[in-house]
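Two records follow; treat each independently.
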Amino acid sequence: MNILFTCACGKKSEQLFKVIKKDFKKKVKLHGCDLRKKKGKTYLDSFNQISNQNEKIFLSQIMKLCNKYEIDFLFAWADKEIEILSKNLKKFENIKTKILLNNYKYTKIFNDKFKTYNLLKKIKIELPKYDLLKNISSIDKILSKFGYPENSVIVKSRYGIGGRGVYLLLGNQKKELKKFKWFGNFDREKKIYLLNSRIKKKNI
């Protein structure tokens, strides 16, 4: 069995490859590709650096890799790649490669946090209170709905990935500070206070 992973240079990728290799031993061959060069030791059987210059080039490269290594299953991690591949599921079926993705209709929804929340709300899934900030001039009005600045509020990008673009607007009570220290990569507290200051100036 041959498996291809995109974003094979991700931080946790090698841990995943190691587990798969251990569990399946010689029954599976792992292949990877990424925009970046692969550095250091890898559990992959092959690695290819690719380009995402445009959708057509990216798709062509992935198709060639699937043909070259007779890929049975393809796993994509990046939102943009998922969107492209989900539009072309039939092409991969024709070369006997199974992509474990939703079709394009649902991919477009789940790559958009606001649309995802609206869909979940529609099917009666319990959700935290949320709203969409369309322009900076309405930020005070929206934040007041959540009880800010007395209460803390989480702000995130509508299309953000990998935890990027997620901020905690620390309220006066500061009770969430310890709980949400995992946000970001480092020095989160400074980012929190800077963001508060910038919001007051309406410059974000």
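The next record belongs to a different protein.
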Amino acid sequence: MLIAQISDVHVGGARYRQELLRTAIEEINASGPDLVVVAGDLTDDGYPDQYPLARDELERIDCDHVVRVPGNHDARNVGYVLFEDTFGARDSRLRLELPDGELALVAVDSSKPDLDEGEIGREHYGWIDEGFAGAADLRVFLCHHHLMPIPGTGRERNQVLDAGDVLSLLRQCQVDLVLAGRRRAPEPRRLPPRLAGGDLRAAHRPVRPPAARRHARGGLSPAPPIWGVVAPRRSSFAAILEAPDGSKGGHMRRLLIALAVLASALAVMMGYSSSAGAYGGGSGHDTWQVGLSFNCNNPSFCGDELGGFWGWVEFDRFADGTIAGDADLTGCGHSVGGSGPGGAGHLDLDITAAHIGPSQPDDPNYPDGHVFYIDHNIATFTGHGPPVTVTDLEDFLGDSGIPAEPGHYSFHPAPGVAFEL
């Protein structure tokens, strides 16, 4: 199941660039999504001459299912009326039967005429609840304004006025994913169980390339549209962040995700037999230390995702049974013939809570082993720009694939490809 999101197109604005929007749409079409959501601010001022242009450009999206909501810019100058005339209802509900399961989506207009702030509104609560009623494998909520504060975006004034009540409602409806636009910074968020009651995740405006982020804080132009894809899988969501200038915000993380992919293949290639227990430690304290590396220099195997990462992970179990840890991973990407993403980066992962549980089919020591499950983390990425810190980074939550039993794993699926754990 693949969902593509695009937002904040701002057709007709001073920094709107048609070629960048068309590039983004071409890349969305190439990804072959099952659903495309357009999360508001299709126009810059809501004027009558901007809506036809926005309609003509967005009609280039090649997908059977496209859902749109207006943003605060679309509601300016009585633009909310023109939105309905051009795109249809501002609120909508959708049920899709897909090969991966049934998807239930509820999309709500969070804008208010001529105001920057937004609100879902109590009048929508019953309608939202009805939209998520019944069985569904994935429940998705879409609006323009964010439901949670977004770090690094200035004074917090524009999340929806009834955010707390809406989050409570979405928890009751067992919503899995919230998609929103508005802010100009990447901030996927998993709500802690005490707030979300499960796996509710919020993804606000996937990413802007560095130049556009500086524009958002008062500098450069143009400001390209933002898009990304979300791929729900067994127990999490893989978010691939894109920008139409060719930069890929998820490049480093996709290299790290390759670890789990290779570990799955490794489980087929190798057996594992060892007694459970810590690798080391002391009185009242158990320690597990793991070194890992992955490298791919084979374009036929990894495409343009060439490079690798190296690092270590440590887990510590204390006398009261709680487990915490940390990890440091350094990676780099490089290109072939001057194309493809490149650069280096570093990830510092503070594992604030973890536990040991049975291994899963994708783990290298399945079926008789145990692995570490990461419950909460704080991740800091350092690359060619300022450090970015994310709480509960989704790609490093849940089954880590790291065995609780000692051992060595080595896998070479193709020439120029190596994985060591």
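Discussion point: Residues 251-269 form the longest helix (19 residues). How would you locate this feature using only the token line?
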